[in-house]
Amino acid sequence: MSLQVIVDFKVVDETADWVVVNKPAPLIVHPANNKPEPTLLGGLERLYTYEIENGACLGIVTRLDRETSGLVLVAKHTAAARELGMIFERREAKKEYLAIVAGWPDRESWVENGSICRATEVGASNIWVKQIVSSRGKECSTRFVVEKRFERQDEQYAVVRCFPLTGRMHQIRVHLAHSGHPIVGDKLYGGSGEEYLEWMENGWNERLSQKLLLPRQALHAAKLSLGWAGREVLWEAEIGKDLQDFIDGKEVGFAEGVVSWSRHD
C-alpha cells in the first residue's frame, strides 16, 4: 500500500513581510537528503515566482515535521526572517497544537517538564533522530489540556490541546508518550520505534495500519500568535478531515495526490 504525498496548501494570511500557510501531511517543508519530492518551499517558490524575481527571498520560520499538519510561518525577505527569528528566540510567540492520543488522561490539564535529549546521548539507539526524556537533556516544558474524550471501536482516545513552552525537537510527541498517552499514528513514539524502522524500510503496509491506525501522526499546528508592526496577530487552522473523521468514528479516507496552491481560503 503506497501513500501519495498531497501537495495542496492554502495561504491563511500574508503581508509584504511574511506569509502563513496551512500545510497538509505528509508534505515535507523543505528538501531533505537530496530526495526528489514535492515540498512546501518548492510550492511557495512557484506561487511567488513574480515576487522572487523582484527581490523576495523566502525563509521558513516555523518548521513542522512531514507528518504534522497546520500553520507554517514563512518570511518573504531577509530582514523579516531575522526579526521573526528573534521573536521566537525570545519566546514571545505563542503556539497551540491539537493531538489525538491513546487512552484517557487521568487529569484535565497537566504540565510535563521532562528534559529532552537524543536517545544516542544516553545509550545505544538505531534511530538517530529519536528523542527521550532524560536528566542529561535540555530544559523542556509543555502544558496539556484535554479538550475531548471519545471512544472508537471500543478503545479510548482523547483530543488534547498542547502548549509548548519551549521549542525542543519532537517535544510534544516525546512528552505525550512519556505521560503514557502517545499520539495516534506516531511511528517513532507510539511504540518501540520498530514501527518507524519498518516504515522506513518497507513503506506503509497493512500491518502498520492495524497497529498505528493512521498513516501519519495525529498532530496539528492549530494556532500561532505574535506581535508584529505594533499589533498582535493570530492565525488559526482547522484540523484536517482525516483527523476529524477519526474523532467522529468514521472510516478515514486518504486522498489522491494533488498539486495545487491557493492564495486564499
Quick structural gist:
It comes from Luteolibacter algae. The protein has 265 residues and is an alpha+beta fold. The protein has helices spanning 40-47, 49-53, 78-89, 171-178, 194-202, 206-212, 241-247, and strands at 7-14, 18-23, 59-60, 69-75, 94-102, 109-112, 116-118, 131-133, 142-152, 155-164, 219-228, 231-236, 259-262.
Structural class: alpha+beta
DSSP summary, beta strand count: 13
Mean pLDDT: 89
Number of helices: 7
Please give the alpha-carbon distance between the first and last residues. Answer: 32 Å
- Domain count, please report it: 1
Instruction: Please give the share of residues in helix.
Output: 10-25%
**Runs with pLDDT <50, length 5+?**
1-6, 255-265
CA-atom Rg in angstroms: 19 Å
Say which CATH homologous superfamily is assigned.
Answer: Pseudouridine synthase
The CATH C-level name is Alpha Beta
Please outline the major beta sheet. 11 strands, mixed
Q: Strand-residue fraction?
A: 25-35%
In CATH, the topology is named: Pseudouridine synthase
Order of H and E elements: EEHHEEHEEEEEEHHHEEHE
What is the CATH architecture assignment? 2-Layer Sandwich
Shape type = globular
Protein name: RluA family pseudouridine synthase
Organism: Luteolibacter algae
Domain Pseudouridine synthase RsuA/RluA-like: 17-178
EC number: 5.4.99.-
